[in-house]
Amino acid sequence: MAVLAAAQLLDELMGRNRNVAPNEKVKELNWEDPEYCKYFLAKFCPHDLFVNTRADLGACTKVHDEEVRKLFQNAKPTHHRKLQYQEDFLRFCLSMMNEVERKIIKGKQRLALSGKNDAPAVSPAQSQKNQEQINILNERINDLEAEAEQAGTDGNVEQAQGLMKLCDQLKEERDNLRKQIENGHWNATAELAAAQEKQMEVCEVCGAFLIVGDAQQRIEDHLMGKQHMGFSRLKSAVDEVSALVKAAKEERQLGRGGRMNSEERQRDRERDRERERRRERDRERERERGEGAGEESVRAEVRSH
């Protein structure tokens, strides 16, 4: 890779014919030579889009030459090799776009799953139900305490102790319900704050995770980043080259139809000439037969005399 990059740099500085001897013939440029990058000729080389990013494809092993690209651009749109290069470019770009589309879908699934797992443990409806139960327990505890106090006043110690024991059990149940409400409220508040602080979404172009409502500078940095701009450029190039390929194929089809019509007219003329030749031969044979019959009648008349 380093040698190829150095050679390309020397070509830019000294010209591609730097190693040609004075008495040697300079090789003419031909964009169909396999040494040139077909993607670079068709539009651009995808290897140049994502340098030093997670989507980096590495260095291209083919030659990128602007003069050769001009020759490619000046070639007829219907040239079969030109169409082939453009279709190869489209296939490569579409494979990359399909890959990022899968990444986008997977990212959305991750966010959806994360949202389900982070749901509050106690719902608002459950908290309200717990509060109603606490109110009932408070009334029951107050009644039991009053009954226990009355039993103690009446000298019924065992009954008073039993009522206080039941009262303690109800208080413990009430405290547990209160803790559930407090914990649920804290969790819901914390999760809401976290969700508001870092609610995530997936970029529809490059599949990166973004923070909803993030600072404008960070959003602009993402939009101007190599990965986002690279995939955005891929999509635009696919639309543009697809239109060129479609137009070229339609032109070839029309040209093929015109040639077919011309060939059909030529065949019709050939058939007409052949029919005329056959009719001429038939007339010639008729004349020959007529002349032969006349001579025979003359000879017959001479013999009769």
UniProtKB/TrEMBL annotation:
Residues 249-305 are annotated as: Disordered. Residues 261-305 have a biased composition (Basic and acidic residues). One of its GO terms (molecular function) is mRNA binding. GO terms for biological process: mRNA splice site recognition. One of its GO terms (cellular component) is U1 snRNP. Keywords: Coiled coil. InterPro entries: Luc7-rel (IPR004882). Residues 127-187 form a coiled coil. Belongs to the Luc7 family. This is Luc7-like protein 3.
